[in-house]
Design a protein that fits this description.
The radius of gyration is 42 Å and the shape is rod-shaped. The strands form 2 sheets. Strands 1-9-8-3-4 form a 5-stranded mixed β-sheet, with no helix packed on it. Strands 2-5-6-7 form a 4-stranded antiparallel β-sheet, with no helix packed on it. About 21% of the residues have low confidence. It is 29% helix and 29% strand. Among the domains are: 103 residues, Immunoglobulin-like; 31 residues. By secondary structure, the protein is of the alpha+beta class. It is built from 2 helices and 9 strands, in the order αβββββββββα.
């Protein structure tokens, strides 16, 4: 009986030690995982031309909280009512109306610049422990400087700009002087011809 009692006591002691150590072992595994720490990022979305419509997807490393309100600013103008989608990203629909104007999500209008334009998004991130995350996207607007060029369009084939160069004042004077000289020469020929006919008719030998 004594060996059995001793064995039972030892097993009870070992069980108690395991129970006491279990929480400590669990804490040392590192779960739950730590929060995301990348709170700011920048991305480039390439180059576009006037007339093109495209969508910028702002994708921070520490994604925004799904469904949360996100502050979006395009070239200094606030774009209202933006929220993060189910993936934690923000989509911004942009149309390059002209070299000086962008249309955002139709009908918000913002300035455009020939060169680098900036879209920023700022919002909360659950994976970052509720911290605020900032994400910036840059795109380059290539402006067409010469007539006769075409640009992209979302509604159909691009319409080319065609035409001829206008005449300057100097050109008008030059061609006007030449036309006047031709009129004078023609008039002199007509007068000379009439005079010859008059002389011929007046001659008794005509």
């Amino acid at each position: 009986m004594r060996p059995t009692s001793a064995m039972t006591a030892l097993l009870g002691l070992l069980s108690g030690i395991v129970i006491l150590l279990a929480p400590t072992a669990h804490a040392q595994t590192g779960y739950p995982p730590g929060a995301c720490t990348v709170l700011a990022g920048t991305q480039s979305v390439g180059s576009i031309t006037v007339g093109l419509r495209f969508i910028v997807q702002l994708t921070p490393t520490c994604v925004f909280t799904s469904g949360a309100a996100v502050t979006v600013v395009v070239n200094g103008v606030n774009i209202p009512s933006k929220t993060a989608n189910a993936s934690g990203f923000v989509l911004v629909d942009i149309t390059a109306v002209s070299a000086t104007q962008l249309s955002i999500d139709d009908p918000v209008l913002t300035p455009a610049v020939c060169g680098v334009n900036t879209v920023t998004a700022r919002g909360p991130s659950t994976v970052a422990g509720g911290a605020t995350v900032n994400q910036t996207a840059n795109f380059t607007l290539n402006c067409v400087a010469t007539t006769g060029a075409t640009t992209g369009s979302t509604t159909g084939p691009p319409t080319p700009v065609t035409g001829r160069l206008s005449l300057t004042g100097a050109n008008m004077v030059r061609w006007g002087s030449a036309a006047l000289a031709l009129v004078v020469v023609g008039s002199l020929f007509v007068l000379a011809d009439r005079r010859r006919h008059q002389v011929r008719n007046a001659s008794p030998f005509g």
